[in-house]
Design a protein that fits this description.
Blueprint: E1 5-8, H1 12-28, E2 32-33, H2 42-51, H3 59-78, E3 82-86, H4 94-104, E4 109-114, H5 117-130, E5 135-140, E6 156-160, H6 170-183, E7 189-195, H7 200-207, H8 213-229, E8 238-245, E9 250-257, E10 261-265, E11 270-274, E12 279-286, H9 290-299, E13 303-309, E14 315-321
Parallel strand pairs: 1-5, 2-12, 3-4, 3-6, 4-5, 6-7
Antiparallel strand pairs: 7-14, 8-9, 9-12, 10-11, 13-14
Helix pairs in contact: 2-8, 3-4
The structure holds N,N,N-trimethyl-histidine.
Length: about 325
């Protein structure tokens, strides 16, 4: 087995600098806002893994079913030599694609790309062990700010699964899709997973589960600020809020201060006042209709070739090319 390579384009120090500037900007303005990317320290990543197993959180299972059914077809249609996976995390579902591409004997390298160096190391080691004939090169980086540094190639597929594109606002999505299209050559591919608009009660339950795991996941961002920035958020005094925004067709996750309070962020020399009931936005998770997926891909210069949904039409995986 060849040793997996790791290209570090984003260090702990970069992450720290970005957390500081995000926290300062997000907590000084109105309404208050913290980016969902700060959920994912070790505990946050573990809580997210637990979310994927909740009865209410259908997305991961739906996407898995879709890929189980379509992976061979995807491999045959695209015959790529390089698979790039953005936000790869544990790369579990990617194995379905790797297995199909291996059967097809075209795949030469796998490039998982993630901001978390620790998650990436674990994933690259595991994949390199199980797929010894594939070259594994991990990239540590924040792909939302562009794909500059994407290893060159001419027969690549970028996979962005899990519905994570829903965390971006429409303008950010357009910019992101444009940067992916710019990084790719004609004939190369994008495989995109998006959650679909559905009954709002089901959506809200998926983000406000009965056992409270999502609430813990949401509050975890305050633990991150307490630890990394010497803040003194009384974490348990923030309530988890999940709301369906019918106009924008996205779920909004927030943390609501249950009393008036003043919080200090020692490392930033910043104090932040909260009114009772004041909320911090921590995430949007946009839900799509297939026409919108097509329109946004089209606007970014992609051609949608095929898409697959699960039986309940909860989720869609789309295959597009430049
Ligand atoms: C990892 C961004 C796809 O939006 O459903 C799960 C994160 N937040 N529960 C999502 C999440 C609350 C998740 N993504």
């Amino acid at each position: 087995m060849s040793q997996p390579e790791l290209i570090v384009g984003f260090t702990e120090a970069d992450a720290d600098r970005e957390l500081r500037s995000d926290a300062r900007a997000g907590l000084s303005g109105t309404p208050k806002w913290l980016s969902p990317k700060w959920f994912y320290d070790a505990r946050g990543s573990e809580l997210f893994e637990r979310i994927t197993e909740l009865p209410e959180y259908y997305q991961t299972r739906a996407e898995h079913r879709i890929l189980r059914r379509s992976a061979m077809e995807i491999a045959e249609m695209t015959e790529v030599g390089t698979l790039v996976e953005l936000g790869s995390g544990s790369s579990e579902k990617t194995r379905l694609l790797l297995d199909a591409m291996r059967k097809n004997e075209t795949l030469e390298q796998f490039i998982p790309w993630d901001v978390s160096e620790s998650a990436l190391r674990a994933a690259t080691d595991a994949i390199a062990l199980d797929y010894p004939e594939i070259r594994v090169r991990g990239v540590v980086g924040d792909f939302t700010s562009g794909l500059a540094g994407l290893p060159a190639g001419s027969d690549r597929m970028v996979a962005f699964l899990g519905g994570t594109i829903g965390n971006l606002l429409p303008a950010e999505r357009a910019e992101f899709l444009d940067s992916v299209r710019t990084a790719l050559h004609p004939g190369e591919w994008l495989l995109l997973g998006t959650d679909l608009v559905k009954d709002s009660d089901r959506l809200v339950r998926a983000y406000d589960d009965a056992s409270g795991v999502t609430a813990e996941f949401n509050r975890n961002v305050l633990h991150v600020l307490n630890r990394e920035l010497g803040a003194d958020f009384p974490v348990e005094e923030f309530a988890h809020v999940a709301r369906w925004n019918a106009e924008q067709e996205w779920i909004e996750i927030r943390l609501r201060a249950t009393r008036a309070m003043r919080v200090s962020l020692r490392e930033l020399g910043l104090t932040v006042d909260f009114a009772e009931g004041e909320e911090i936005g921590t995430e949007i998770s946009a839900k799509f209709r297939i026409e919108r997926v097509r329109d946004e891909l089209d606007a970014a210069g992609f051609d949608l070739h095929r898409w697959w949904t699960d039986e309940a039409e909860d989720f869609v995986v789309s295959l597009a090319s430049v």
